[in-house]
Design brief:
Helix content is 33%, strand content 33%. By secondary structure, it is an alpha+beta fold. The protein has two domains: 2-125, no CATH class; 148-186. The chain has a five-stranded mixed sheet. Strands 1-7 form a two-stranded antiparallel sheet. A hairpin with a 6-residue loop joins strand 4 (55-69) and strand 5 (76-91). Helix 5 packs antiparallel against helix 6. The longest helix has 18 residues, at 169-186. It is elongated and about 65 Å long. The chain binds zinc ion. Zinc ion (ZN) binds at residues 70, 72-73, 75, 77, 131-132, 137.
């Protein structure tokens, strides 16, 4: 896969010390990971690497934006990305599990592939609510949403409450946001 080369750091042969790397993220990364909602994006990734004997300590900063469907009108909107994080790469014959903070590579590996880390960091850094700035939602789409009647909403809510035990936090918060919107419209 080409992508793994594009976001790789060839650490082998480098002496201990500090190094800087930069990557550019575009829509390809999100397509490669079959992102369920990011349709496009443009981000700059800056990596400061401290190379030790058996570790690479990476300070990663990601800035830019991604394009996602707006929670309010479902048309695409641009959401800023700002991420700062640290990834520790252990170079070892022993292989642990990658947990988002520590990655393990074999001493035989020439390079460390950061594509997954970068992708996940962008996804995790996105704000919970992804909406256009006020007044910039698609008016046609908004009109269609207003057709939802109070009764229809009550039915949806009742069912959701019924399922709320198994409902993930994200879904519950989305429902709360929808409820707020309904209340706004009634006023
Ligand atoms: Zn919108």
């Amino acid at each position: 896969m080409e992508l793994t080369e594009r976001y790789s750091i060839a650490h082998k042969g480098l002496k201990s010390g500090r190094y800087d790397f930069g990557f550019t993220v575009d829509g390809e990364l999100f397509r490669a990971y079959d992102s369920p909602d990011i349709v496009d994006g443009a981000c700059d990734v800056a990596v400061r690497m401290e190379r030790g004997e058996t570790t690479l300590s990476l300070d990663v900063s990601i800035t830019g934006h991604v394009v996602v469907p707006c929670d309010r009108c479902l048309e695409n909107c641009s959401v800023p990305v700002g991420f700062e994080g640290r990834l520790l790469v252990r170079i070892s014959d022993e292989q642990g599990e990658y947990d988002g903070e520590t990655m393990w590579i074999s001493p035989a590996d020439e390079a460390v592939d950061l594509s997954q880390y970068i992708y996940e960091s962008i996804v995790l850094s996105l704000p919970y609510q992804r909406v256009h700035p006020d007044g910039e939602c698609d008016p046609e789409m908004m009109k269609r949403f207003r057709i939802v009647s109070g009764e229809e909403f009550a039915a949806v809510e009742a069912q959701a409450q019924h399922e709320s035990e198994s409902l993930p936090d994200g879904e519950r918060a989305k429902l709360a946001a929808l409820r707020e919107r309904m209340n706004d419209q009634e006023e």
